Structure formats: C-alpha cells, structure tokens
Batch of 2 targets.
Target 1
Amino acid sequence: MRMKMIAGNWKLNNNQAATRTFVQNLESWFAAEPAGKKAASAAASGKIEIVIAPPFTSIEAARAAKKSEIIQIAAQNVYHESKGAFTGEVSLSMLEEAGCKYAIIGHSERRHVFHEPDEALEKKLIATLESQVLPIFCVGELLEERSSGNTEKVLARQLESAWKSLTSDVVGKMVVIAYEPVWAIGTGQTASDADAEKACDYIRSLAFEKFGIAASDSLRILYGGSVKPENSASLCSQNDIDGLLIGGASLEVESFEKIIETAV
Ligand code: PGA
C-alpha cells in the first residue's frame, strides 16, 4: 500500500501572514471538523501525507505556525551546491534547517519559464537524495509534444536523464514523481482520468524496467495539472496515481481541504 500524498504548490503566492492563517485554519479543520479529523487520523496512521510548498520566505512562517506533524513542508526549488558564489540560490542544508521534508525539482515552470535543463535537474535530484530532504521530481510533456504523439518519449527522456545513476532502493523508497502535463497546468484543462493514469502507469513501467518490481511498486507517482475538488476523487483513485500536486486550488484552504477529503 503506497502512502497517498496531497501536496499544495503555492508558487509565487502567500506571504508570511497568509501562510500563518492558512496553516492555522487547516489545523483547526483537522482538530474540529469530522472530515478534518478523518484526514488527521489517516495522516497519523501513515495512509496519507499532506504537504504545502510555500515560497522560500514563507517556509519559516509555516513551520512556526504548525502545531503538529500532520502538515509537512516542501520547498518549491533547491540548488545542488551546498555553498558558494551562487547568487539567488538556496541549498539543501538550508532547507533542512528550515524544516522542509521535501523539495520540488523540475516543476514545469522551472523547466520552461526558467529554462532549467535535464542535466541541472539530475544534479538537483542526486544532491537532494544525499540530504535529509526528499525529492518530488516533476515530469510532463508540452501540448505540441502530446499532439505529435511524443508524450512517452518526453517522459522517458526526462526520467532517464534524471535517474540514470540511481539505485533501486533509493528510487522506490525516497523519490516521489509528479506527472504534470504542461498543457494542464493552470489552464483549467485537466487531463482525463484515463490519460493521467496511462502516463503514470507508463512512468511506473519505466521504473520497473530499470529498477525492478520492488522499486516500481513502492514508487509514489502524483498527478498535477488543474486539479480541483470536482476532479480530485476520480484522479486520486486511479491505480497508478498515488496523490496530487495542486497549484491554484491549494491556495484557498477550503478547496485544499475538499481535495484532501476526497483522497482519504
Ligand atoms: P495547477 O498547478 O493546479 O494550478 O494547474 C499545478 C502545478 O503547477 O503544480
């Protein structure tokens, strides 16, 4: 049984005050509402993980505001070097110190807006696996790549370049993959359950070919791209989808709660 993950990627949203309010409201829901209590107990028994990824400057506000371990914190990005003349970058030890359990690597906005290449993402993945922080490694095809029938080719290239030097035990236990088709991100155009499942099943088959059955069975694969409370239940119940990475719908605590509710 793979532990589900519901992760909110806040992108460039939520300053410290908004972060504190969000965390307090979410924890009140866990403590007081029947659906929240059910989610909290699923989190306590290891059935689900609830993660938020605030901007760097709001991470400490999230850590300080939370009273329990139900909410885990992710960074939206990281740099592979540990220190030095790398203006604007943040290291893994800084994320550890700030209380991050996860770091998102290779989000489509990092790949396509900030032009991070596969080679840079491989370095980030390897460095993250050498730290206490766990990677949520994102892959996904552009619209033109899907239209030209190249979805699987793109996923294979992105994954194989990132995990070529990794071993089975590391991949199965420590890596979370997020399948996020670029055309579905922030567009309101969610992948169908069948298309999302097909891509996640393909990712698992790549893991099987390279790392074997134990690793591919335990690898957690999330879907992301215009997830909302209206479509989260069916996406989350697909065989190879172990959770959701949510952008826009994770910014309001009520819709994030509704999505959590559909996953437990
Ligand atoms: P979205 O973003 O849910 O707003 O489409 C998802 C993501 O970028 O992770």
Note: The beta strands are 4-9, 48-53, 71-75, 102-105, 134-139, 176-179, 220-224, 243-246.
Target 2
Amino acid sequence: MKRGKFIVLEGGEGAGKSTQARRLVAYLHGRNIPAILTREPGGTAGAEAIRALLLEQPVGHEGWGMRAEALLFAAARSDHVEKVIEPALAEGRWVVCDRFVASSIAYQGGAGGLDMQAIDDLHRFGSNGLMPDLTLIMNVPPALAEERLAKRDGGLSDAISARPAHYHRRVAATFASVAADPRHRVSMIDGDASEDEVFTSIAKIIQPMIEQPVRC
Ligand code: T5A
C-alpha cells in the first residue's frame, strides 16, 4: 500500500486556512484521491476535549501556564496522530490538516517564549516526530484577518486569539522562520486575494505531488 501525503495549512487566525483546507480536500476527491480533512487541536474525541480546555474560557479559570499549554497541545496531537493521521496515511489516504506542530512552534515557542528544543522533544515523544510532506503557510495582513474574523464571529475570540497584538506579531515572525526550516517543507501562500485566487496558488503547488508517484 502506498502511503498517503500529509498536507498542513498554517498561519494566523483568520488567514483562510479552514476555507482552503476544505477546498483542497474537495479538489483531491475530484481527482479520485482519497483524502480526509482534520484539524488541530482536535480530530479525535479526546483531542477535541483538550481543545475545549485550551480555547474556552470558563468563568474562574485563571488560564494555563505556557508549559501546561504546550503539553496539552502535544497530548492532543499525540492522540490525533496515533488514531487518525498515521492510520489514514498508512491506508494510502491523504491527510489535510488545519494546523499542526508549526503552530506549537509559533504560538508556544516563538510567541510564548518556550525553548524550541522542548517543543521538538515533546513532538518527538508524543507523535514520533511526524512531519508534513508539505506545509502551506497562509499569510495575510493582520488588519485584513481581523476584518474577516469580525465579520464571521462578531468580535468573539478564544483564549489564544484574544492575546495582545505583540503576541500575534511574534507568532507571525516565527511562522516566517519556520518557512526557512527544510524539515517543514514550506510553501508560503499570499492569502490577501479572493478565495478562488488563493486556491489557484495552492492547486499549482499540489499538482506535482499528485503527478509524482506517492512515496512508499
Ligand atoms: N494553537 C493551535 C496553538 O497555540 N498551538 C498549537 O499547537 C495549535 C495546533 C486554534 C487556536 O489554537 C492555537 C492557534 C489558534 O489560536 P483554530 O480554530 O484552529 O484555533 O484557529 P484559527 O486560526 O483561529 O481558525 P479560524 O477558523 O479563525 O481561521 P482560518 O481557518 O484561518 O480562517 P477561515 O478559513 O475560517 O476564514 C475566516 C473568515 O474569512 C473568510 C471566511 O469565509 C471566514 O468567514 N475568508 C475570506 N474572505 C475573503 N477572501 C478570502 N480569501 C477568504 N478566505 C477566508
């Protein structure tokens, strides 16, 4: 059985990741490529429960410390990789995932101040160091992302997206440095265009992966 491809969409909140991830799976299905759409944190019942712990802000909860936050993301990822991502890849299906380990590097590492080696070590322990075949980092100006999210969510935010602008500037700067790391196999995508135009850029990047024989 040929192993499937693992494609991750990354970037700041409101960059258009979920929109393009859905389109990508539909595009693959249209080419008779078996593919699943999943997300982080989440993708299994347990990881979705951890997502709620991380992102919802119950009254009286003082928030997680950065180390606890990194551990919770890594635990959710471990469950997701073991139960969903690895089995799908092994069965020859492509996996399109909305966020993965680069988000931990950007949010808990670069912006949260944790040691990058610790994030790598958690990933190696929790998820056998699984890396995507391709990471698409979607880049949009912060003001545009805010405008899109205000339109969609009416100003509501979660525990992480509500952090101050300087935190999100560090997230963006760290994503830019992830792009230079060959382990992530990054293509940068300009998200400041219509949904169709953005998807055309993504399809151009994906096309050679479809034409190449899938890695064994
Ligand atoms: N996190 C996550 C960590 O800190 N560490 C980790 O390890 C991980 C995995 C997850 C949060 O957790 C953090 C990061 C996050 O803060 P989430 O729900 O996955 O939360 O993340 P968000 O990025 O907040 O997801 P969003 O759904 O808000 O953003 P998307 O997916 O980038 O944007 P999307 O596609 O939903 O689009 C937003 C709106 O814009 C419109 C859409 O229709 C939608 O209304 N839109 C466009 N409008 C015009 N032109 C385009 N090209 C458009 N594309 C989309």
Note: The pocket of T5A is lined by residues 13-19, 39-41, 55, 73, 98-99, 103-104, 107-108, 148-149, 152, 160-161, 194-195, 198 (CB under 6 Å).
